[in-house]
Amino acid sequence: MNTPQNNGDTACVVEVSDVTFGYPPLGIEQPVLEEVSLTIEPRDFLGIIGPNGGGKTTLLKLMLGLLRPQKGAIRIMGRPPSRVRHRIGYVPQHASVDASVPADVLDIVLTGRLAGSSWGAWFGRADVEAAMAALKRVHIAELARRPLRTLSGGQRQRVLIARALVCQPQLLLLDEPTANVDAHVEAGLTDLLHELNHSLAIVMVSHDVSFVSTHLKRVACLNRRISVQRASDISPDIIARMYGGDVRHIHHGGACPLTDPGCEQDCEPAETAAADAAVTGTGRKGPPPPPPGSER
Amino acid sequence: MDFFEAMIHHNPLLLNGLIAGLLASICCGIIGPYVITRRIVMASGAISHMAIGGVGVGLFMAYMWVDPAFRQGLEQFTGGLLAAPEGDIAAGSPTREQLDQAALLGAMGAAVIGALLIGLVHQRIHERMDTLLGAMWAVGMSIGLVMLKLTPAYQTEVTAYLFGNISFVPRSELWILAALAGCVLLTVLVFHKRFVAICLDQQQAELQGINTLWTNLVLLVLVAFTVLTVMRVVGLVLVLALLALPAATAGHHATRLVHMMWISVLLCVLLTTVPRILVYGTPISPEPATVLAAGGVYLGSVILRRAVLALR
């Protein structure tokens, strides 16, 4: 069942309403997220960008039900996240999975199938078939019996995506999928996500601004507060000012406040934003502000 | 062939030792790969040293229970704080078999308590885990030493538990070891998928609705059982030699956890039998011979792997 099926009563895949969250011990005294609202439609493709510490990963964890908001509510497919969490495909940063584990690709993908499986030492044939189907969807079926440690970074990323897909989710959450992969791998990954977007909604956290322009349908700018807009409304100018512009100023030893018109009332021009932009800038090859669309 | 001749004609205890080694090998070979992959080698060491404390308490209780002279001595020593109960249950020193059972029971209690403690604390605080394990390691062993010092068993019995005593495994204990091995095997057959999931990626397991706390506790209790089966073979102090080294060696050559298990069971069987047979009739004890062989095989495997990688 590759096509999303709306259960009629749930038009939205994700509904985040007025969520405020802070980590203990201070809690909402020192909120990481404040009054964040967000809805995601079926087959949406939303990018979440923002500085480190801006709450991107926290928002993902809230959507997965790993954290509970102090205020506000989150509904995934009309239900609390912890109830449907095994129906959400979650792709962590690929560095978060130890590549030295004694497991082959199929073993890893099968762990995404655990929720519905029986007790017992081995997975059944249906589970293995589902895992192989997921591997086919990310075009690495031939790697099924390869140990994880022999794969490249891009291939490992695809294994994690396959693991997320094996539960046949309607929502795919990705945490910085393009971090630490080279441009060539990134292009392949972009095409893959574009392909998957035909059948499910995708939310991805990203540093990578070049991604914003071409593939995303909407962009959420998150720095404690959120501001969502259509990707087409984000002009090269805005992006350049949000990241590239800063980088250039930092390189010359100056600081520049963010002057993004879409985000300025929400995204604080904090030092973290500048530092983050610096990281992004130095991590990229070539001149920092790429005009959207020019890379591919 | 001296070993087998002796085994068949004069000393059936040698066969008991082989069977005990086999049971320990099955447990270690199966649980070891989980321990390596989940990175709970130090936790396993802490559990085994907690078990030493348990042995001390067990032997102490055995003397308390059976030996009236010991009780009176203790009463005088503590100035009546520990009063001798009225009416003796039995007179005289406890028999060797009673002591063995008491020690095993004490070790089992302490090891399981240690395992549960580690599992519960691990879930709550993550970063100070190694400190806590070190503390349990040292405190467990110290409790054992204090209790053993207080019992007359100190000189004779202690080394059997600390450093193994594979040449004198009584028949009755074999049944207990077999029961423990059976528990380990059955639990793994039920839990294997879940164990693999928490070993590979705990957060993913959690997202799949696995209760990671309970799964962890079950795994740690299995480690505790495994420690008990190894007690006679290489001793509680050297448990890691048989629990971690063969599995780590297998990890050099296997790409899947299941393959790792097969290889490490095989290695454990070889390590508990071959060195023992080779040193039979020499002044070298079989237990350290086993440990040294395990270390040698591991080291050899490390060097071999380096060499293969360098040649590529």
Please sum up the structure shown:
Chain A is built from nine helices and nine strands. With 296 residues, chain A is of the alpha/beta class. A six-stranded mixed sheet of chain A has the order 5-6-7-3-8-9, with helices on both faces.
Could you describe the 3D structure shown?
The complex is a heterodimer of chains A (296) and B (312). In chain A, 32% of the residues lie in helices and 18% in strands. By secondary structure, chain A is α/β, with parallel strands linked by helices. Chain A folds into two domains: 14-234, 3-Layer(aba) Sandwich (Rossmann fold), CATH 3.40.50; 235-289, no CATH class. In chain A, the strands form two sheets. Chain A has a six-stranded mixed beta sheet with strand order 5-6-7-3-8-9, sandwiched between helices. Chain A has a three-stranded antiparallel beta sheet with strand order 2-1-4, covered by helices on one side. In chain A, helix 4 packs across helix 5 (153-165) and helix 8 crosses helix 9 (271-283). Residues 1-9 and 244-296 of chain A have low confidence and may be disordered. With 312 residues, chain B is mainly alpha-helical. Chain B has one domain (7-237). Helix content of chain B is 79%, strand content 0%. Chain B has helices spanning 2-9, 13-38, 41-66, 68-77, 96-124, 129-150, 154-162, 171-200, 202-207, 212-231, 239-243, 245-253, 257-278, 286-311. The longest helix of chain B is centred in the middle third of the chain and has 30 residues, at 171-200. The radius of gyration of chain B is 21 Å and the shape is globular. The N and C termini of chain B lie far apart (42 Å). The model of chain B has no long low-confidence stretch (mean pLDDT 87). The A-B interface holds A 64, 66, 85-86, 88, 90, 92, 96-98, 101-104, 107-108, 111-112, 114-115, 117, 119-123, 147, 149, 163 and B 33, 37, 188-194, 196-197, 199-201, 203-210, 251, 254-257, 259-260.
